[in-house]
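About this split. The held-out portion is used to measure sequence recovery: a designer receives only the structure tokens and must propose an amino acid at every position. Recovery is the fraction of positions where the proposal matches the reference. Here is one held-out target exactly as it appears in the evaluation file.
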């Protein structure tokens, strides 16, 4: 009797093992190449192509270490590139699409998705389609090219969906830096306040740790707060816009040129090139007299041709008086 119990026990264990193997094999009947979304070697990725169903396309091209272009026109946003590469490297299958919604999701991916082509060392290595988020916003519907089986994918450790990392708006991909320069490339910065020349100034970078302060007429001005001079210089070089404007730009620029700017910032490189940013008040009309000035946003005209929104929050530390720089005291915003 005891021997039979042992035999039955062994037989039960064998049956359980066989069932586990059977069901694992059954769930794994989909070929690996039809569910393998990730491409971990992002260091070799040098081009990414995105296209939605409205024929909006984005081509991201690596042109150097940590530097990409958008459609061969603009420098790409580093944060957006990092988020995209992070998704490309780490996406994993979270679950199969439930049978009850399989047909619906397959149709949605066919009609409302973003095609993704990934190139490594100029060779196409991965193609898939990115769809909508799942109802709980914790997964994303995706399907590999040449597959008829969609999946719910996710990035392990990230609570959210990945659709928003694969966007196809060219302007949203564009870097928001005003001056496409590194600090060593910059020779001088001039901040000119029209009608307030006594408040205008120039900072010349003589060496990595040495700066010269002058008034607008190039008269040398003594100062004691080296850190303030340095921080102002760096803040200007690294300043960013809030948003690129693309609608009715020429008309708005013509209108702004008839008004007095808040300030004009000129950045001169060691090669003699000059980059300009002219700041103007942004007026919210609302049929009021006099018109109200927006307290948070102003217009920024870059190199006399591109119009942007700029935040006072970013520029308050920059828009200061010459007297503030020539003294060791707290900076004060210029009266505008």
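Reference sequence for scoring:
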């Amino acid at each position: 009797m005891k021997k039979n119990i042992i035999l039955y026990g062994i037989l039960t264990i064998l049956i359980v093992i066989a069932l586990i193997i059977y069901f694992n094999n059954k769930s794994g009947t989909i070929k690996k190449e039809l569910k393998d979304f990730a491409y971990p070697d992002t260091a070799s990725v040098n081009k990414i192509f995105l296209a939605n169903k409205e024929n909006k396309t984005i081509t991201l091209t690596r042109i150097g270490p940590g530097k990409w272009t958008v459609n061969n026109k603009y420098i790409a946003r580093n944060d957006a590139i990092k988020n995209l590469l992070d998704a490309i490297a780490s996406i994993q299958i979270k679950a199969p699409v439930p049978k009850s919604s399989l047909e619906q999701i397959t149709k949605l991916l066919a009609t409302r998705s973003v095609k993704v082509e990934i190139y490594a060392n100029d060779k196409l290595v991965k193609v898939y389609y990115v769809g909508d988020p799942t109802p709980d916003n914790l997964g994303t519907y995706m399907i590999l090219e040449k597959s008829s089986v969609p999946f719910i994918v996710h990035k392990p450790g990230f609570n959210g969906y990945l659709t928003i990392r694969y966007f196809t708006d060219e302007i949203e991909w564009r870097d928001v830096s005003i001056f496409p320069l590194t600090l060593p490339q910059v020779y001088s910065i001039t901040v000119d306040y029209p009608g307030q020349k006594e408040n205008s100034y120039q900072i010349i970078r003589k060496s990595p740790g040495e700066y010269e302060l002058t008034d607008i007429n190039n008269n040398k001005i003594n100062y004691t707060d080296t850190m303030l001079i340095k921080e102002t210089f760096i803040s200007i070089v690294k300043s960013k816009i809030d948003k690129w404007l693309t609608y009715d730009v020429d008309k708005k620029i013509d209108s702004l040129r008839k008004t007095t700017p808040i300030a004009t910032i000129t950045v001169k490189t060691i090669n003699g090139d000059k980059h300009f940013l002219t700041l103007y008040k942004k007026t919210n009309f609302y049929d009021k007299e006099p018109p109200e000035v927006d307290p948070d946003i102003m217009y920024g005209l870059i190199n006399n041709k591109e119009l942007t929104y700029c935040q006072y929050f970013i520029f308050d530390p920059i828009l200061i008086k010459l007297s503030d720089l020539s003294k060791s005291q707290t900076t004060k915003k210029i009266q505008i």
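Annotator remark: Confidence is low (pLDDT under 50) at residues 7-28, 328-336.
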